[in-house]
Amino acid sequence: MTYIDQLGASAKQSAKVIATLSTATKNKILVAVAEELLKSEEEILTANAKDLELACSKGKKPAYVDRLALTSERIIAMAEGVREIATASDPIGIIDTGWLHPKGMEIIQKRVPLGVIGMIFESRPNVTIDAAALAIKAGNAIILRGGSDAIYSNTMLKNIFVRAGIAAGMPPASVQLVEQTERAHVRELISLNNYIDVIIPRGGKGLKSFIIEHATVPVIETGAGNCHLYVEKSADLEKAYAIILNAKTQRPATCNTIETLLLDYELLVAFLPIIAQKLADAGVVLAVDLTCMEILNKHKIIAEHATSADYKTEYQALKITIVAVGGVEDAINHINTYGSGHSEAILTEKMAASDLFAQEVDASSVYINASTRFTDGAEFGFGGEIGISTQKLHARGPMGLRALTTYKYIIRGNGQIR
Amino acid sequence: MTYIDQLGASAKQSAKVIATLSTATKNKILVAVAEELLKSEEEILTANAKDLELACSKGKKPAYVDRLALTSERIIAMAEGVREIATASDPIGIIDTGWLHPKGMEIIQKRVPLGVIGMIFESRPNVTIDAAALAIKAGNAIILRGGSDAIYSNTMLKNIFVRAGIAAGMPPASVQLVEQTERAHVRELISLNNYIDVIIPRGGKGLKSFIIEHATVPVIETGAGNCHLYVEKSADLEKAYAIILNAKTQRPATCNTIETLLLDYELLVAFLPIIAQKLADAGVVLAVDLTCMEILNKHKIIAEHATSADYKTEYQALKITIVAVGGVEDAINHINTYGSGHSEAILTEKMAASDLFAQEVDASSVYINASTRFTDGAEFGFGGEIGISTQKLHARGPMGLRALTTYKYIIRGNGQIR
Q1: CB A57 within 8 Å of CB A51
Q2: What are the structural domains of chain A?
Q3: Distance between CA A27 and CA A29 in Å, rounded?
Q4: Gap between the Cα atoms of B119 and B131, Å rounded
């Protein structure tokens, strides 16, 4: 048995036990973890300091180092997150539906845990705690594989989770971390069909395409966010300024941030210069099509020429593509061609336009007159989030506790045969 | 663009249109297909005769040839199946749930089509019609890839579906068949992530493991049925005889047939010889463990020695493994070790035993005092079945129309920002 096989086998054993834990026990485990996190600040910061030192010595960029860094505040936020998951309602045991078979058996469809979750992620060490807490609440075991740059932090956070969890009744191998950082382990993990029920990758494109290419365990793709906002000509323009700025600048590195602004031709003369100036003032770099460029030149607003490469790019930064379109159908067409199926918005006061947009845009979350920034498990009221699915199977959009469950049919009869 | 790329691109174009068809139009298409099938009996039988001739000349076994054969009766059954799908309720547009965000946006979760389905199957040509009808009713396009042995029949059935469908308002590329039989096309099809949303394989182990190994498009695994029936000591034995015979012999080649009978030790002396004789009388070959063998020897009932290879085998034939177990926990353990997560049954009059079994057995469908043969889309009232999922993501157990849908969130606001 290899190292990864051993993790898989013990996770599967533990999963059987966690699946039967009461809601009260699971909540007790989570509350204990939250408390232990707060008590262990010093240990966590010491471990994190080692990761930070290595990252700096490797010459990583400040933004990268910032994502890796843990602070007293971030530890408190992690503990709060775990407490919130403890208070969220238990998704297990819910009967989705039930009916009577014509021959008299009662058929019920009941929510049960998935089993063992494999979570492969990069950078942010808080994912260790968030993902483990969600997995446990939904009755699953989890095997975590974080980036090698966060190995000290991740190991420490996992150890804290496990020691507090075990003391509160958690089966030991419920939360495990791949502590050896060889890339080959990822390949082995994503082929562990005997033990792992689903792989959830969170990270950059390279990681995700590697996993989709090589996994034999089912994968849920998450977090590719090439999002658009289309301003239809009847839109309330005052609201439009606020929504666009929010959707682009409130937290530009997140996947629900817009990357392209689509403007109706009729809005080019009056609206474009104003929003372009507002975006520029907020530090946003503009990449615009030829039609928009002409207008911006007249107003001496600086912009780059947008290419079709821009249309496909998730900047995750203070940069936006602006494209003029001939109407709602044009906008839908652009979105369905270049979008990643994440979050798409229309600003309009016309029912026909909003209905067509909601019907035809192929995305997990379609917004009418609101910012795309709301696509988020906590905002949707899911008591946490393991990722945002951009595929269509199993779960779409923000994935909370329910996305970490499956169902079984239970059929009760008294001798029925077919 | 390759041949497969072209199929994918045109399917995706058509999918956009089918997604917007009204229920009435979709039903009209299906009724037209059913009528056209009945009218085209001669054409279908002529095409089928070519496949049968080739199969015979290749020396295929009679059971194989029988599965390939179409008859007047089977054509009527296909047409009936399509009509049933027409009368089933439309899964599209249903609002699963909805709520108000604290900032006042209305969030609804609405059922929408998956998009493009890739269906890869072997042998039975009726799958062409069944799968296409289910796909269309759920608003999807479908690309079919049948076995090369059924290529004439599949092509004819697809042509009939398409010509009747188009006349009734179906977009032309909604139903397509890979008409070239090179194996390389399968590999290309399962990597067509730009165009195909899900791959559903139906066929033997070889086909399924090839697809799971190589697919980058999400796959739903179907139809692996190593099912068990456990007779607990308190079971009503009269009912047990009937259920066991039904679960093993009613249609032994199906995936919901039992392959192993687990008997409580206390039932060995009185019950085992009787059920063994009944099974033998029904033509079932017995493969039994050492404990059972001793008893059967005394009664001069002929049986083979069961090996652990038998425990893992889906016979799909008139053969059964019989194993003695020490109680319900032993039975659950055997099932969770060797079962394929399909259908598992317990016969008992004790609540504690049935509750434990229903809780701990890890399978799509768990039966208490009923035959496993009911695991079937039509029996579950799903208006048809595209396969029986034995994985935990997306859909588990019989997959009907709803399994061919996903959802999107539609968020209506009036200027909300985060």
Answers
A1: no
A2: 3-221+391-412 (3.40.605.10), 227-374 (3.40.309.10)
A3: 5
A4: 8
Residue A223, Cβ neighbours under 10 Å: how many? 21
Pairing mode of beta strands B304-305, B319-325: unpaired
Q: Would strands A227-231 and A258-264 be described as parallel, antiparallel, or unpaired?
A: parallel
In the numeric block, the tokens 């079994």 are attached to: B357
Query: CA B144: distance to chain centroid?
Result: 16
- Give the Cα separation of B37 and B190 in Å (integer): 30
Chain A contact present for B394, CB below 8 A: yes
Question: Residues B328, B329, B333, CA angle at the centre, nearest 5°?
Answer: 115
**How far, in Å, CA of A314 to CA of A411, rounded?**
48
Q: Say how far apart CA B247 and CA A417 lie, in whole Å.
A: 8
Torsion of CA B145, B146, B152, B158, to 10 degrees: -60
Q: pLDDT 10s digit of each residue in chain B, 418 long?
A: 899 999 999 999 999 999 999 999 999 999 999 999 999 999 999 999 999 999 999 998 888 888 899 999 999 999 999 999 999 999 999 999 999 999 999 999 999 999 999 999 986 899 999 999 999 999 999 999 999 999 999 999 999 999 999 999 999 999 999 998 888 999 999 999 999 999 999 988 889 999 999 999 999 988 889 999 999 999 999 999 999 999 999 999 899 999 999 999 999 999 999 999 999 999 999 999 999 999 999 999 999 999 999 999 999 999 999 999 999 999 999 999 999 999 999 999 999 999 999 999 999 999 999 999 999 998 999 878 999 999 999 999 999 999 999 999 999 999 999 9
Listed by number, the residues of chain B in 68-97 with a beta carbon closer than 8 Å to a beta carbon of chain A are none
ipTM: 0.94
Closest CA to A321 of A230, A246, A388, A250: A230
Tokens describing residue B151: 């290529």
Give the number of other Cβ atoms within 10 Å of residue B66's Cβ: 10
Check: CB of residue B230 under 8 Å from CB of residue B339: no
B residues 279-308 lying closer than 8 A (beta carbon) to A: none
Q: What are phi and psi of B195, to 5 degrees?
A: -120, -30
DSSP secondary structure, B167-217, as one string: HTT--GGGEEE--S--THHHHHHTT-TTT-SEEEEES-HHHHHHHHHH--S
Residue A176 bridge partners (DSSP): A143
**DSSP category for residue A219:** B
Cα A97 to Cα A124, A129, A270, A406, B92, distances in angstroms:
39, 33, 54, 13, 18
Single-letter residue type at B203? G
Tokens of A23: 């809601």
pLDDT digits (tens, 9 = 90+) for A378-392: 899 987 899 999 999
Predicted TM-score (pTM) of the model is 0.93
Place of tokens 């068990």: B228
How is residue B258 written in tokens?
Answer: 């039992």
Contact B408 A415 (CB under 8 A): no
Q: B369 and A115: CB-CB below 8 Å?
A: no
Structure tokens at B395: 């859909």
Q: Which residue of B has its CA nearest to A338?
A: B194
H and E: helices and strands count for chain B: 15, 16
Helix-strand-coil percent breakdown of chain A, rounded to 5?
Answer: 45, 20, 35
Tell me if A369 and B250 make a contact (CB, 8 A cut-off).
no
pLDDT digits (tens, 9 = 90+) for A80-115: 999 999 999 999 999 999 999 999 999 999 999 999
Pairing of strands A387-389, A365-370: unpaired
* Six token digits for residue B3: 């041949």
Main-chain phi, psi angles of A303, to 5 degrees: -150, 155
Buried b (16+ CB within 10 A) or exposed e, A29-39: bbbbbbebbee
| CB atoms B392 and A364 under 8 Å | no
Contact across the interface for B236 and A391, Cβ inside 8 Å: no
